[in-house]
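Appendix B. Raw example, untouched.
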Amino acid sequence: MSQMTFSYGEAQKIRPTRVGFMANRYENFENVLILTLLVVILGALFLLLAGIVETRGRHVQDDQCLVDDLQD
């Protein structure tokens, strides 16, 4: 959890610099907003995938416990 907090804090410092650089280079914020949208969507998909993997892992562990109980 501390790694996630650290990453978020670093992103809060680095991102404004990158956005300013890109806005100056392309002379508008449209490209920056599109890139930001894609990063947010990608992050949401990773969180969804992590939730699915965690849920499946719990079901496999529960099934294994049932099998162990039946064998005893």
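End of appendix B.
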